[in-house]
Amino acid sequence: MGKSSSLVLNKVSEQFPAPFKKSFYFLPISLSLITLLFIFIYDITTTVDVTHNLPQTDPYLLDRSLPTDNIPFDQNSENGDDLVADPSRLSASARANKWLGNLFGISNGNYTNNIEAYHDEDIFLEDYKQMNKSLKIYVYPYPQDHPFKQVFEPFESDPVGNFASEHYFKKALMKSHFITEDPDEADFFYMPFSIALIRDDHRLDIAGISVFVKSYIQNITNIYPYWNRTGGADHFYFACHSKGRFAFDKAFVAKLNVIQLLCSSNLYISSYVAHKDAPVPQVWPRLDAPPIPNLLTRERKQLGFFSGGINSRTRVYLLKVWDNDTEIFTHHGRLPTPYSEQLLGSKFCIHARGYEVNSARIADAIYYGCVPVILSNHYDLPFTDILNWKSFSVIVNERDIPILKRILQGISSEEYAMLQSNVIKVRKHFQWHTPPTDFDALHMSLYELWQRRSVVKVKS
Length: 460
Ligand SMILES: *[C@@H]1O[C@H](CO)[C@@H](O)[C@H](O)[C@H]1NC(C)=O
Ligand SMILES: *[C@@H]1O[C@H](CO)[C@@H](O)[C@H](O)[C@H]1NC(C)=O
Ligand SMILES: *[C@@H]1O[C@H](CO)[C@@H](O)[C@H](O)[C@H]1NC(C)=O
Ligand SMILES: *[C@@H]1O[C@H](CO)[C@@H](O)[C@H](O)[C@H]1NC(C)=O
Ligand SMILES: *[C@@H]1O[C@H](CO)[C@@H](O)[C@H](O)[C@H]1NC(C)=O
Prior knowledge:
Its main location: Golgi. The chain has helices at 2-15, 18-53, 92-103, 121-134, 149-152, 164-174, 195-200, 205-223, 226-230, 252-257, 292-297, 313-322, 339-345, 361-367, 404-409, 413-426, 441-450, and strands at residues 137-139, 179-180, 188-190, 235-239, 259-262, 278-279, 302-307, 328-331, 346-352, 371-375, 394-395. With 460 residues, it is an alpha/beta fold. The site of one 2-acetamido-2-deoxy-beta-D-glucopyranose has 4 residues, from helix 8.
């Protein structure tokens, strides 16, 4: 090393006159000093922002199995009164402006696609057609005298309420052309147990969920050859009940391999694995929206709307800041006016996380043509690998609740029209039908499955 560099120096001194020799050292040294200075400045100007956006505790140290309702806020304070973010870190106008820059793709001077409802609509449509033609699903049968038969049966009546998606999925799937009786032609194997119904069965209850699922998997493993070929990697189930997080607590291989279609797609719980599992929407079936043209032309006098139980720090914070505001209407308890009137009369409908990251509020907003505002950090949003959420919703860090009004007011009427027209465009993906219809929530959920196919099946 020393030899070769002195050789180079000798060569240089031979070829160049003395003044150059000085600058030979001066240039690199001054350059490196300037670089160090830049790094230093960069460090100072960016550190504040980075720490601001990240959880206060190292996320890798968090126990991912705990409900992590407290992540967005100050982790160091024990008393519950620290909900208002540190004002010294909150230069409101700067943050609102930055947010708007992000929405319209001008962050760091680079254009990003925040206008189109899909990441790539052409590819999606092409692939969807393939899925629609080829996808085949085998549903594991269950004995008619099974003591927990109701856990496997599709609903007779129309599903309602918070877990309707879970029941609709099975009901619609069974009526679809994706079902095959021949396991040899199946791409996927469906385990038709319902977490919500296990949860409701007093013989099983929450503690029984993981015991039941373990026993179920043992049984299909013993009776059929399909599980053992892939370790369950071409097996799936669907759950909208948040207690689905306990399903595989006693089934380790299932936890690693089975594809879960889940409403509670929280990136900070160990039972949800992004990219392996797929996020699906929680939908409370509603039927009373006016036709689409009326949704668009309707006068929406109220800026923002939230209503719901106060069961999380996010919601406490939201009400603490915006309770009694004249433009953002927040409410807990029973609404004095019909819910649909609020959703139809507001420009923005707020989804603030509750016990879990998800709720039916996003699908409600979309159904009534209201642009959803998502205050739920670490929520892996439904169909997010297909849909471009920034084009039809407003995603706000929970910490930014104090500047929420400024963010919403900063959205011009042209920008709002763009967001709302995309809400209408994606609306069909957030609805269930029996029998299912093209591009509805069933087809989209199955498309998510389709993206996770092609496991080589080793025959035993
Ligand atoms: C902007 O885009 C160009 C080309 O895609 C890329 O090379 C560059 O790194 C981007 N800059 C930023 C700040 O993202
Ligand atoms: C999907 O398949 C069904 C049944 O074969 C068919 O009626 C429908 O037109 C197909 N949709 C698309 C988009 O290919
Ligand atoms: C598994 O099989 C056993 C024996 O037939 C039965 O008692 C049990 O209920 C089955 N478990 C499930 C979850 O189906
Ligand atoms: C699948 O593998 C398990 C464990 O290795 C074994 O007990 C079971 O009998 C196998 N199932 C079939 C159908 O061969
Ligand atoms: C909202 O108004 C009610 C009733 O006047 C009052 O009790 C409450 O403290 C107010 N909330 C805020 C955040 O000002």
